[in-house]
Amino acid sequence: MTAEQWIILAGLIGLVLIIGPPLGRYIAAVLGVGSAPGDRIFSPVERLVYRLVGVDAEREQRWTAYALSLLAFSVVSILGLYGLLRLQGLLPFNPTGATAVEPWLAFNVAVSFVTNTNWQNYGGEATLSHLSQVVGLVTQNFVSAAVGLAVMGALIRGLARPRSDTIGNFWVDLTRLTTRLLLPLSLLLAVALVSQGVIQNTTGFQEVHTLEGAPQMIPGGPVASQVAIKQLGTNGGGFFNANSSHPFENPTRISNLLELAAILLIPFAAPFTYGTMVGRRRQGWAVFWAMFLLWLAATGIVVVAEGGGNPTLATYGVDQAISQVSPGGNMEGKEVRFGPGLSAVWAATTTATSNGSVNSMHDSYTPAGATVTLSNMLLGEVSPGGVGVGLAGMLIFVILTVFIAGLMVGRTPELLGKKIQASEMKLATLYLLAMPVMVLGIAGLAVLLPEALAARTNPGPWGLAEILYGVASPANNNGSAFAGLSSNTPFFNITQALAMLVGRFFLIIPVLAIAGSLVRKQPSATTEGSFPTDSPLFVGLLIGVIVIVAGLTFFPVLSLGPIAEALG
Questions:
Q1: pLDDT band at residue 381 under the 50/70/90 scheme
Q2: Which of left, alpha, beta for 410 (phi over 0: left; psi -120 to 50: alpha)?
Q3: Most buried one in 2, 108, 323, 516, CB count within 10 A?
């Protein structure tokens, strides 16, 4: 990377370290720990919402009622968005003349945005009306992110509360997180992005003429408002088909930095929310460092891999060094304004979270770089993962690590004084198995079917990597595309939608069940014999457990895909 790009990366890390702790404490206040700033502004709006939907804000729910409320809200959201997509050709605010979305594609899109995946088997500006973009997709960008944060809050309450039956109220959490966190931050970010040239208008396609006199259609639309929440909510779905590589979505290096920071801020703030809510801030810092070190290692590897250039071109004597006329490195599939360095940082970040936006085409990455982007998702996206669900996943690994450490040293496994027993471990095992079963099952089926194999751009190991990525991304609710798989087919639209549903709800339900199990336990006092879960040793053990679990599960298929391509 150039010196300027290193400065941008340092600035990104600085923003995370400076803003993360106070933002985490604010989220804890929004979730009910102490008084939250802005009560005079937000409370009347929230009371009106509760009255309109018939919610008793003072009544909390057991984990079963919390889960049923979440599922009911999600089912209604899928049906509503599906209906909007199918009827968009008959509805107003459609300057592009978009027609009804095909049934299976509409089903895929509806499931994708409700599950916070935002996988896109379509070109946004050509397929959807402005009404579908603004009312359908943007709404789900907000509420799907709020759902993830609500699940996180419920799990933390399960750990923090002594002997209780309830873990909060889903409708209250959903409302407060949307009004007090996501809406204000999105408004600020949208204004900042407009200042950098991200468009925000209500026009459709406009015909212009190039310098040579040829006609060209220039798209328009309410873009900045969608980009802001797609990044803050780790959603990732772009207004344009080219996503964040499009100059109308991401025109400058400053907009690139702002969007990268937006992707990382809430996931990295979540550990500090955890530390504040359990009353032990060292616990939050321990989880933060585990997330941060995994992200930093992945980012470093991709930066080095892409900055080193294409090894095949090197054998032909092609100069891939940084110069005044070239950004150097592997420039295939990357924008000149970002170069390999900032593209690599984005790729590592978007796959380490459940964001899924791209500012370069991952199919053009080196085998080493592609292996890391795939591995980030296959870790379970806990480094730092999506808003809310990333921390929830990391806490599941904390529970697993505590259990393993307890077996190793002969102590009763405890986390924050609460015993980790068979019921929690069964649920944690279900959480850890759901995603690999879907990824490996669908990928295995895809390599047996001619229709699925025909969707590949490349044969051999790289073709397997394209299929694996096209399944791993939906199953982990990521949404980023390898750009080498033509997946708008009935097979992939159906199987990817199923993968998204399993990757979302078969993980959320065990998390809420664990919260319900833990909240009923009375914590024991911490003694000298208690296993410390806030030390550097525990951070190292936690990272080791995450890497080993993912490695044992996915190393064989990675060896047949991008690793074989690197060695071939």
A1: confident
A2: left
A3: 108
